[in-house]
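Sample 3 of the quickstart, ligand NDP:
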Amino acid sequence: PRTPLTLLGTGAMGTALGRAWLAAGHPLTVWNRTPERTAALTAEGAVAAGSAAEAVAANRLVVACLLDDASVGAALEGADLAGRDLVNLTTGTPADGRARAAWAEERGARFVDGGIMAVPPMIGAPGAFVLYSGDPDLFQEHRDTLAVPAGTEYVGADPGLAALHDVALLSGMYGMFGGITQAFALLRGTDVAPKGFAALLVPWLNAMADAAHRTAERLESGDYTTGVVSNLAMQVAGTDTLLRTAAEQGVSPELLSPFLDLMRRRLADGHDAEDTTGLVHLLHTR
Ligand code: NDP
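Result:
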């Protein structure tokens, strides 16, 4: 028999998660602040509870997927969490995760925080995964159930670690989105077809993403020097071409300049034989 569980929050993401558990045969109790929004899942066999407290009372395993950390506190205010296993898939900061873990433990619950690395249509399909951190025993015991909607990636007992990984991955993604935005801005108003260009850009970005492994190796070894290959002196000399081309195309340098400025500062500090790894140090404010 499949483990029964409770799902708090049947928004876009909660509904996608709930569908996957129902399809796999898990008995599911659901609650949503706006009761009408549980209809899609009750039509597929979920049982709707009249309150969050009732939903929590129904099962040991309770998954919350609400808007933000404050809504988790609001939803669970009157619920008895003693003996429950609370898995919080609501997006928050590392400090939110740690505070929510302490809050749950004070109420007698075990706690795991999660960060969903997928959009709702990806749930139940290959490629989606969820980062988990917190109580290792809870995670081990419920791993099979948690693995139904998406792959599982446990990153440590500190409950803040899932959010830290989540935001670090999203930060890398937004850097890439910024670069894609700049690239298409350069081409706008020219005869270059966006789709044809994308066919070049995607394999280029995939090949360049591998640079993260080099950065990781350098951070771990402490040796940031690259020798003559793409060192900072060479890269900074090239930045002028990036900025002049943007100017020629009538494109603002506002996305590119902050990163180029960091490269220049690091070079000015005498790190001409390194790559960009040392920029990590410049960003640290404490
Ligand atoms: P939705 O806006 O679709 O759903 C939000 C849910 O939170 C609803 O169930 C809503 O209830 C509930 N809610 C909001 N405020 C409160 C409150 N004060 N008390 C109780 N319940 C409240 O968002 P998603 O389902 O898309 O997102 C849910 C979580 O999943 C978020 O933390 C989001 O960051 C995360 N996530 C979402 C992704 C996505 O692509 N959608 C991707 C990765 C993570 P009601 O129906 O009553 O408004």
